[in-house]
Amino acid sequence: MLTNLRIFAMSHQTIPSVYINNICCYKIRASLKRLKPHVPLGRNCSSLPGLIGNDIKSLHSIINPPIAKIRNIGIMAHIDAGKTTTTERILYYSGYTRSLGDVDDGDTVTDFMAQERERGITIQSAAVTFDWKGYRVNLIDTPGHVDFTLEVERCLRVLDGAVAVFDASAGVEAQTLTVWRQADKHNIPRICFLNKMDKTGASFKYAVESIREKLKAKPLLLQLPIGEAKTFKGVVDVVMKEKLLWNCNSNDGKDFERKPLLEMNDPELLKETTEARNALIEQVADLDDEFADLVLEEFSENFDLLPAEKLQTAIHRVTLAQTAVPVLCGSALKNKGIQPLLDAVTMYLPSPEERNYEFLQWYKDDLCALAFKVLHDKQRGPLVFMRIYSGTIKPQLAIHNINGNCTERISRLLLPFADQHVEIPSLTAGNIALTVGLKHTATGDTIVSSKSSALAAARRAEREGEKKHRQNNEAERLLLAGVEIPEPVFFCTIEPPSLSKQPDLEHALKCLQREDPSLKVRLDPDSGQVDTLDRTLGDKRHLVTVEVEARPIETSSVMPVIEFEYAESINEGLLKVSQEAIENGIHSACLQGPLLGSPIQDVAITLHSLTIHPGTSTTMISACVSRCVQKALKKADKQVLEPLMNLEVTVARDYLSPVLADLAQRRGNIQEIQTRQDNKVVIGFVPLAEIMGYSTVLRTLTSGSATFALELSTYQAMNPQDQNTLLNRRSGLT
User: CB-based burial of residue 253 (10 Å sphere; 0-12 exposed, 13-18 middle, 19+ buried)?
Assistant: First the structure.
């Protein structure tokens, strides 16, 4: 809280330094260390998609398949639900790897960073291209760890469909809700895969019910499990009324048999499947009018006569409309259920031409692409992942970046295969490309063929807007949606070992910012670690006198509210010329508060008077205003705000009491305790400062059986006692 305060200040010198903040500390280290591609050892991989064994296809069909045969999908889930293992099985069965990778062994294809293999989690979003039964699939294995939510967000924007992987013993978990909401935001059709059906405690019924209750989705049961936990041995195809059994003697899961369900062999299973199929038909008919008419006119007397192809087509339409989600099951680790999952991806998820992108009408057949990820390779330089929405990309092609208003040239075009890349001559709409040679393109930039193409698209958008009498500027729609970056909660300061290394540090930070938009870099104006402003500028006098007022505001605002009081002492012409310098000075001062050096929020800064000596530089104006605001803030009443995190802890009943006692000591606020099978789920809030090292403590308290998830909720004021303790500790008094 701030009290009203006015103060005068003269110009002063500022000494800036580099200051960094980021939403995840060890993600910075992961990016810094990734200087060299890592190739999986002991794995056999084919060199070009489509060339598997003796199956030699035409080069054109390999590089640019028909758009109806393309599937751009992502795999999303809560941490440890089995996303990377599922991806490894998909790659193996599609022929792109000749042996099975395992997360625990650290030899998976999509987890190619050293940090990922060490921790057994996926941090980056690795893109993989493969073929399955005549379809081209571009798959992205996204992180499930809450610290890497931005990686999920970054890639969901360019997908046409998604596979949501669930732990069948846990159902919908904390991060599942987060990624599901992200998919809803981008209107992405999805199918559900209930993984780990072989795990102790796995429950198909519970997992399906959690999808219905927690995600508010309508599950379409396309499969039923044959057994659960230790007895799981296969699945039933409800649509085809067939059972799929995997050979228990097979080590890789390639050998399985598909048998029709017969009354004489499986009477109980046939009865259960028939009931499930009839319920599925009724459910789809309720959601799809075309299918309902077909059923009522021709098959109302006997659903068994309804062809499977008709039902599959209707399920495809319902999935695209996002009125329901198909549900399949299996065990990726035990190599069961992956091939039917791949069939479902090609059968039910949309092709690029089935997705409605309004902006494409402005571009016609010209190039329109979105740069959704930037990586830096030590040999090749910046590698830019692009989703092509229209047109064609070729090597040596000059492209125009609308966001950066610059023209660049693509030197090479690659097909991504995790950290291995195959050079190709062209790529058409619907595909995901990896480009080399773009030095200024950053994550979220819109790419077109030329500036004239962008202007022509803008004119089409404006003409259409006039026809529809729209108030908003249609030309703004030419920019494809960027990434929404959450505010950082972790901060750190770095500096080079010497001034000679300063250019290298600045270059590295620029590369990291292009690659990771959650990384924020700014110059600290007061820590005195980099540069000096020399005020000895010949005979020219630099003099600024300014009067400002700092006061609190009721509404929450991260940025300071700047007000200009037009008193007689302020010349409007002078104010207009110096306004940008004044605003820069205010923002600079509010980036570092007087108590802990943290950003100031919920404050209004009012300029009451301003006197500037002729010839005074804008740098001096900014410096004087910044110093004046800092003095005002220092003398005002202030309150420290701390990050408050949403916390969800899943713990066995036997360990609930020690976990609750520990959270109470951490100033935790318990909102709810739910029951999930044999476990308890503790939901509440806890200050971020109290949760450092919590994973180690939780493992100790629960013998390694509990898990937890964190997500930033808001900022809350510390109570006076905690604030005084913190300030004394920071000043060395305690």
Answer: buried
β-strand partners of 572: none
The region of weakest confidence among 489-503, 579-593, 641-655 is 489-503
What is the reported pLDDT for 532?
26
Asked if 438 and 377 touch (Cβ cutoff 8 Å), the reply is no
Mean pLDDT for 267-275 is 95
d(CA 524, CA 530): 9
Spatial separation of the C-alpha atoms in residues 365 and 355, rounded to whole Å? 16
pLDDT single digits (tens) 552-581: 887 777 788 887 765 555 666 677 778 888
If you write DSSP's letter for every residue of 179-228 in order, what string do you get?
A: HHHHHHHTT--EEEEEE-TTSTT--HHHHHHHHHHHS---EEE-EEEES-
Q: CA–CA separation, 296 vs 441, rounded Å?
A: 55
pLDDT digits (tens, 9 = 90+) for 624-657: 888 888 888 888 888 888 888 899 998 888 999 9
Q: Do 663 and 686 meet the contact criterion of CB atoms below 8 Å apart?
A: yes
Q: Are 107 and 38 in contact (CB under 8 A)?
A: no
Terminal alpha carbon distance of the chain: 25
3-state secondary structure of 452: helix
- d(Cα 430, Cα 444) in Å, to the nearest integer? 17
**In angstroms, what CA-CA distances link 495 with 355, 502, 678?**
47, 8, 50
- CA gap 84, 137 in Å, rounded: 16
Residue 10's SS3 state is coil
The Cβ of residue 583 has, within 10 Å, a number of other Cβ atoms equal to 17
- Cα gap 216→203, rounded to integer Å: 19
Spatial separation of the C-alpha atoms in residues 243 and 273, rounded to whole Å: 10
Whether residue 417 has pLDDT greater than 80: no
- In order, the DSSP letters of 686-729 are EEGGG-TTHHHHHHHHHTT--EEEEEEEEEEEPPHHHHHHHHHH
Helices marked H in 73-187 — which ranges? 83-93, 114-119, 149-156, 174-185
Q: Could you tell me the maximum CA-CA distance found in the chain, to the nearest angstrom?
A: 105
Q: Which of 429, 461, 420, 527 is nearest to 38 (CA)?
A: 420
pTM score over 0.90:
no
Sequence-distant contacts of 246-252: CB under 8 A, at least 24 apart: 246/335, 246/336, 250/335, 252/92, 252/100, 252/335
User: Which amino acid belongs to residue 498?
Assistant: S
pLDDT (mean) for 239-264: 89
Give per-residue pLDDT as tens, 684-732: 999 988 888 898 899 889 887 787 888 888 888 888 888 888 888 777 6
Degrees to nearest 5, angle at CA 470 with 468 and 475: 105
CA distance 411 to 396: 5
Element (H, E) at 268: helix 267-287
